[in-house]
Input
Amino acid sequence: MPARTIVDPIVEQHSLFEYPSISTGTQQEVFSLSIHSKSEAKSTVVTSENSETNALVFWTETGFVDEKSEDNSVTVSNGLLSNCLVGEKPEWHPGHRQGVYFLPFESIGKAKTIEVFIEQKENDLEFKFRVF
Output
């Protein structure tokens, strides 16, 4: 087992607004949590649109729904400030941290798809990845 998986969390926290980056894929939901019950484990396949992908970024978007009027509903995000297309520089929310999974060095330049498996544990989320 690589030392990386024993010592470091597989998804690390970083304030990405401090780092230059280029989007190499489209945004997609990979997991949904509920405050009312435990969420089912979920596996999602992410497709890279650029062979230079070296990481996946995770952030949360929390929706607060007004049961009386959806017009009063609001979503709070610790991720992107605006939509970002492939090839553009993402604008990350300053002062917030995002979760980052760095691809194994030997996979950079070769990764076409990445399977993301997320399971809700009692006080944490468990992440597993397979790079193809």
User: Anything to note?
Assistant: The chain has a mean pLDDT of 90.
